[in-house]
Design a protein that fits this description.
Shape of chain B: globular
CATH superfamily of one domain in chain C: MetI-like
Number of strands of chain C: 2
CATH architecture of the largest domain in chain B: 3-Layer(aba) Sandwich
Radius of gyration of chain B: 24 Å
Radius of gyration of chain C: 24 Å
Largest interface: A-C, 129 and 120 residues
Order of helices and strands of chain C: HEEHHHHHHHHHHHH
Largest sheet of chain C: 2 strands, antiparallel
Strand content of chain B: 5-15%
Number of helices of chain C: 13
CATH superfamily of the largest domain in chain B: Periplasmic binding protein-like II
Distance between the termini of chain C: 13 Å
Number of strands of chain B: 13
Number of domains of chain B: 2
Helix content of chain C: 55-70%
Shape of chain C: globular
CATH class of one domain in chain C: Mainly Alpha
Structural class of chain C: mainly alpha
Chains: A mainly alpha (about 300), B alpha/beta (about 425), C mainly alpha (about 300)
Oligomer: heterotrimer
Largest sheet of chain B: 9 strands, mixed
CATH architecture of one domain in chain C: Orthogonal Bundle
Number of helices of chain B: 20
CATH class of the largest domain in chain B: Alpha Beta
Structural class of chain B: alpha/beta
């Protein structure tokens, strides 16, 4: 499912020292080295694995316990009376489906829009030289450092005056404030790796600049564009403050939706919250397991090779 | 080697140029957001309207409110659009949207927020409507601001101390402590039970540290007198010093908010905690001990000297009406929801929220609930609203004080300095 | 760092003028949609917000009053330095810790273990759970009174009494950083792993044969190859953490006693809980000025060195 991208067998080859290796001593040495690095690797995986996975386990365990069990102390590390009621309750809450669908739609459109716009901008930054280019690039990156709350007040007023509140448009545009700079930056890096000679060749063959971009450069940069899109997707998928302010129930995305459903005035419904989070995250997790190679290939294309 | 074509140095530089560009353009920036909305008109006679309430999304509350809405829609042949925000973001979201003219119709408000919202000048005066409701006086008061009736009271209760009588028995405490001294003694007895008991699950997180106000009042601080803050006086310092003492002796625990307090109480690990009347149902539901509900008793807050009036904070919800679109129908709906006897009784049965009308309270189903009647008698009867509610900055005031109290609890500040600082901050907030 | 930067294209490539536009115009045309969007949704809101910093303005009420620098001095005389310090602690902590964790994991997964592709996918899980949920999950784990962390530590006999992780100044910041680390290390790991996989194994073998130990091999062979990716992930994470909001807001709300307050939470709380947009935007403005000063100093240094870029 997940073949590695660049040099697929980097590791496994090391199991059999190549024939050119000199001498027995060095072979023994390498074997000892290998053993040591194996032990180190497994230690790292176990320790970090515990850090990474135990909370996920706890999320699952909580999702499977009843409310009475939830608040026990000391907590039961392995839930005894397992209940699926928190999951079955989800089926009855169709509002959650609305949130999930909204999230998927908004995050996807955001990703596509950001990538499209950023492709042109990144290409321009990468392959042309003109006055103000550098300042523009810098502004794009710097814009990611300012607090969203600062933008929010004005964005709210602007969207309000255009009647855009509670629309996907408002959410997409607001998410674009942080996804677009990221994509521009990533894609510029990717275009930098496409040799100028290729463009010259296309030009000599008589391709117009648009054609060069669309039929020659874009396909080459496609893995990078997918990677940028995935990053934009996750950033949009995660947003809380823009979503809570700019949309109501009908257009609300998951983060504020989950909070308003389970973190209430009088109680926090931990088990239900955990069950719901698990269910709604699952499709994205699975999708990412398949798509991760793009993440890797696209994102590092520009930085590793020089 | 390049890093996506932009080197680290280059990247650092771009922050600067970006910021420069932005700052330079800032000089030209005479373009400010307009803030104020436009739509205060609209069809006041429209049958359809919006109803904004945080409860409309919360799993626990949603079904019973949806029922009320559905019944109204059916009877009137109208459409109610339900709007909700998470409770913790509710006031800021509502404020923003009311200011932008997005919010219309009926609006559910915590009584602590009424002033902040009423000051925006968008709420209708419901004085004449309220007369038709048969509300109790204390309930009507909770919907008033600046002499005008902006809210129809939906539920009126109070926040007071709940005791676990079986735990008290176990510690050999025969009757509820009535003075602070007795209370402290009881807490020590309870601590003696061992087993990680937190005798009093008092709020220690900023979110609910406003629970300390009734204690400050118990110690004799009025909080506010003739629009002058009295926090910082000896009584308030005594109260905080006392709180700190309880904290240091582990008679109260750190990092506790209302949710934590309920969890502790539900596990039988806390003998006292502060909650609104609705807390009983919530706490009992999440407890394994099915006898807990019966062991829960409302308790008069201990007083400094025998004979003082026990302090309690008024608590409840009102429905306010935004001037403009759908105003009339929304008003009718609010009146119906808060006064129709069958509706309030059913709502009480579902959520244990006491009604706000005399008739509603005397309904046998409500009157026969001993916890509720006992609560009203022991706690609500002497409950008062916070003097800070009249200020729009109420939330900030509460937070400013809470932060200072917390600083004392965690040991970064002394009670006297902290209260002096709190007073300065609150004074500053009130003046703004 | 910039040893092999792309060659400077001194002259615009006039020869490729297939269309009617000049190259410069074409390049600008390409940026037009982005710039329009950028101006509308980032620059304009930012400027208008900064301008508001000079006014006393209530989020709830129309109208405002010019107060000059009063809002700025409110912060400078008050919490500015504290917030700055805390923001920096959080930003550095939440950037470096996940980097180290992610790098260690990437190295481990790169050592040729079976199933590392699957593991890599599995480790992405924390990254894809919505950020707010991550924060609630950890809030639940760190809870002083019924949290699982205290439960486990007590069972193991490491602690005797519950620790109020989120309720004490020191541990609260730690908890926030741990939470952010959990959410961030996966993507850093994926990126670094990709970088590692481009390191030719022959280089390692050669170095090994020359008698280089694993630590020396790391610095001599591995590090130079992944330095590029490493600086990208560090820079991005740094930028994001600088304005990160959710984790802190949910876990501690900036508390206890304001000890985890950062620029992002302070701006939000002031604007949306205190309705004081004047002060909120003034803090944002100070933040910008600060960055400006840092960069001005930086530019001076680099320019003196005769950097032409």
């Amino acid at each position: 499912m997940t073949s590695t991208t660049s040099t697929p067998l980097a590791g496994t080859d090391r199991l059999r020292p190549s024939a050119t290796s000199a001498g027995r001593t060095s072979r023994r040495r390498m074997r000892k080295d290998l053993l040591r690095s194996r032990i180190a690797a497994w230690t790292a995986i176990v320790v970090i694995g515990a850090f990474g996975m135990l909370p996920v386990y706890w999320l699952l365990a909580t999702a499977l316990s009843s409310p009475e069990q939830t608040f026990q102390f000391p907590p039961k590390l392995i839930p005894t009376d397992i209940t699926f009621s928190n999951f079955t309750a989800l089926a009855e809450n169709d509002q959650l489906i609305t949130y999930l669908v909204n999230s998927l739609i908004v995050a996807s459109i955001t990703a596509v829009l950001s990538v499209v716009v950023a492709t042109y901008m990144g290409y321009s930054f990468s392959k042309f030289r003109y006055r103000g280019r550098r300042s523009l690039m810098h502004m794009v990156l710097a814009s990611q450092m300012f607090p969203q709350a600062l933008l929010l007040v004005t964005l709210y007023a602007v969207f309000s005056s255009f009647g855009l509140l509670n629309t996907y448009t408002a959410l997409v545009l607001s998410f674009t404030t942080f996804t677009m700079p990221l994509c521009v930056w990533m894609l510029k890096g990717i275009f930098d790796t496409i040799p100028d000679a290729l463009l010259e060749a296309a030009s000599i063959d008589g391709a117009s600049r648009w054609r060069t971009l669309h039929s020659i450069v874009a396909p080459l940069a496609a893995p990078g564009m997918i990677a940028a899109g995935l990053f934009a997707f996750v950033r949009g998928w995660n947003d809380f403050i823009f979503a809570v302010t700019l949309a109501d129930k009908e257009k609300q995305t998951l983060p504020p939706g989950l909070v308003s459903t389970y973190i209430g005035e009088f109680q926090t419904a931990w088990p239900e919250l955990m069950a719901a989070s698990l269910v709604v995250s699952a499709p994205v997790v699975v999708a990412f397991m398949f798509l991760q190679r793009y993440l890797v290939g696209g994102m590092t294309a520009g930085s590793v090779k020089s | 080697m390049t890093t996506s074509g932009i080197t680290r140095r280059g990247a650092l530089r771009m922050f600067g140029i970006g910021a420069l560009g932005v700052a330079g353009a800032g000089a030209l920036g005479a373009c400010a957001p307009s803030g104020a909305g436009t739509s205060s008109g609209g069809d006041t006679k429209s049958k359809n309207f919006d109803f904004t309430s945080w409860s409309l999304n919360e799993e626990a509350a949603k079904p019973s409110i949806e029922k009320i809405i559905a019944a109204w829609e059916k009877a009137e042949g109208s459409k109610i659009r339900a709007v909700s925000y998470p409770y913790n973001e509710y006031l800021s979201q509502l404020t923003l949207k009311l200011g932008g003219g997005e919010t219309t119709g009926a609006v559910h408000l915590d009584i602590a927020w009424l002033a902040a919202v009423a000051q925006m000048g968008k709420l209708a005066d419901l004085g004449s409507v309220a007369l038709k409701g048969g509300y109790t006086n204390v309930a009507l008061d909770s919907g008033m601001y600046d002499g005008k009736q902006y809210g129809l009271p939906w539920n009126t209760g109070s926040i007071g101390v709940i005791a676990n009588s079986s735990l008290l028995e176990k510690a050999g405490i025969k009757k509820h402590p009535t003075t602070v001294e007795e209370f402290e003694g009881a807490l020590r007895e309870l601590k003696g039970l061992g087993g990680g008991v937190v005798p009093y699950a008092a709020a220690t997180k900023v979110a609910q540290l406003k629970d300390i106000f009734p204690w400050m009042q118990t110690f004799g601080c009025t909080l506010l007198e003739d629009s002058k803050v009295t926090i910082g006086d000896d009584a308030s310092i005594d109260a905080v010093t006392w709180y700190k003492k309880l904290h240091d002796e582990k008679l109260i625990a750190a990092d506790v908010d209302r949710f934590d307090a309920r969890a502790l109480f539900g596990q039988g690990k806390a003998a006292f905690y502060d909650d609104a009347i609705i807390g009983k149902g919530v706490t009992a539901a999440q407890s394994k001990d099915k006898t807990l509900a019966d062991a829960m008793r409302p308790m008069k807050r201990p007083v400094l000297r025998a004979g003082d009036t026990p302090q309690a904070l008024l608590w409840g919800g009102v429905i306010a009406i935004v001037k403009g679109k759908g105003q009339d129908a929304a008003t009718e709906f609010a009146l119906h929801t808060t006064t129709d006897r069958a509706t309030t009784t059913e709502y009480f049965a579902a959520r244990a929220l006491p009604p706000s009308t005399t008739a509603g309270l005397s309904d046998p189903k409500v009157a026969q609930d001993t916890f509720t009647t006992e609560w009203t008698e022991k706690i609500t009867d002497t409950a008062t609203g916070s003097p800070f509610w009249q200020f729009a900055q109420n939330a900030q005031i509460e937070e400013a004080v809470a932060k200072q109290v917390q600083a004392v609890l965690v040991g970064t500040s002394k009670p006297k300095d902290a209260m002096k600082k709190a007073a300065e901050e609150v004074n500053d907030l009130i003046k703004r | 760092m910039s040893t092999a930067a792309p060659p400077q294209k001194a002259a615009p490539r006039r020869e490729r003028s297939g269309g009617r536009l000049s190259n410069g115009a074409f390049a600008l045309l390409l940026t037009a949609p982005g710039l329009a969007l950028f101006a509308a949704i980032i620059i304009y809101p930012l400027l208008s917000a900064l301008f508001t910093g000079f006014f006393k303005q209530d989020l709830r009420l129309p109208g405002r009053e010019f107060v000059g620098l009063e809002n700025f001095s409110y912060w400078l005389d008050g919490e500015f330095l504290t917030i700055l310090k805390q923001t920096l602690i959080f930003t550095f902590g939440a950037t470096l810790v996940p980097f180290v964790v992610g790098f260690a994991l990437a190295l481990a997964l790169n050592s040729g273990l079976k199933g590392s592709g699957f593991l890599r996918g599995l480790f992405l899980f924390p990254w894809v759970i919505p950020g707010v949920v991550v924060s609630f999950l950890w809030m639940w784990i760190f809870n002083a009174n019924y949290g699982v962390l205290n439960g486990v530590l007590m069972k193991a006999g490491i602690i005797e009494e519950s620790i109020s992780w989120l309720g004490q100044p020191g541990t609260a910041m730690l908890a926030v950083i741990v939470t952010k680390t959990w959410a961030s290390f996966p993507w850093m790991m994926v990126m670094l792993l990709a970088g590692l996989q481009t390191v030719p194994k022959e280089l390692h073998e050669a170095a090994s044969m020359d008698g280089a130990g694993s630590i020396r091999r790391f610095f001599a062979v591995t590090w130079p190859q992944v330095r590029g990716v490493a600086s990208i992930v560090l820079l991005l994470e740094f930028i994001w953490n600088f304005q990160h909001f959710d984790t802190i807001y949910v876990l501690t709300g900036g508390g206890p006693a304001g000890t985890t307050e950062t620029f992002a939470t302070a701006v939000y709380q002031t604007a949306f809980k205190g309705f004081d947009i004047g002060r909120a935007t003034a803090l944002g403005g100070l933040w910008m000025v600060l960055l400006l000063i840092l960069v001005a100093v930086y530019l001076r240094i680099t320019e003196r060195k005769g950097d032409a870029r």
